[in-house]
Amino acid sequence: MSIKVVIADDHVIVRDGIRAVIENMGEGIDIIGEASNGKELLETSEMNPPDVYILDISMPILNGLETMDRLMKRNPKSKVIILSMHDDKTLVEKSLKSGAKGYLLKKNSAGEMIDAIREVNTGKFFLSPDISRYVVQGFLGKDSEEKHSFGTPGLTTREREVLQLIAEGFTNKDMAKELNLSVNTVNFHRKNMMKKLDIHNQADLVRYALKEGIAEL
Question: Computed over its alpha carbons, how large is the radius of gyration of the chain?
Answer without folding.
Answer: 17
